[in-house]
Specification:
This protein is an alpha+beta fold. 22% of the residues lie in helices and 34% in strands.
Length: 171
């Protein structure tokens, strides 16, 4: 458990919720990834003069499922082909990853995908980390089951930072 307090700059941050519908090609790509038994966590497409750079992150369909290198390779091949068709170019470079054991949740929409995972959030109201399993999430807040088996709902406006807690059961 980190005992280091966040910097004052860190405390000014808020967890933002960006809908997946606002991410170009997300809907088409998420259907493909879900059909392969995974969830599309993030998709970024950055075109430039010479090449279009793509980065994507996938997670297991169930929160307790870990992803292998072979899983990433299989999804990479299928997703790259789909994106090249959607973009109308083969001049692309794509990096596909899975969330690591110390994944920082950057967008509040990820809480929905990671329902069932153990996380810790820096709650600005209590100026401390709150640990728990994600029970549910919507576009305004996340509800955790804390270590004391209590339900705690935290508004995204009150979250400065969030990250996975990796337990032995998930290893």
């Amino acid at each position: 458990m980190d005992s280091v307090l966040p910097s004052p700059f860190f405390l000014k941050e808020i967890m933002e919720y960006t809908s997946y519908s606002k991410i170009q090609y997300y809907d088409q790509c998420s259907k493909l990834v879900e059909g392969m038994g995974f969830k599309l966590v993030d998709l970024k497409i950055v075109p430039s003069k010479t090449i279009t750079r793509i980065s994507a992150m996938i997670a297991g369909a169930q929160s307790e499922v870990n992803i292998s290198v072979n899983d990433c390779a299989k999804v990479h091949r299928a997703l790259l082909s789909r994106l090249q068709a959607l973009l109308g170019t083969e001049n692309t470079s794509m990096e596909l990853t899975s969330p690591g054991i110390e994944h920082n949740i950057k967008n509040a929409r990820e809480f929905e995908i990671f329902t069932g995972r153990n996380v810790r959030v820096w709650d600005k109201n209590v100026s401390d980390w709150v640990n728990g399993k994600i029970l549910s999430a919507d576009d305004k807040s996340v509800t955790l089951e804390t270590e004391n088996n209590e339900k705690k709902t935290v508004s995204y406006d009150d979250i400065a930072k969030a990250k996975f807690i990796y337990t032995k059961e998930e290893a």
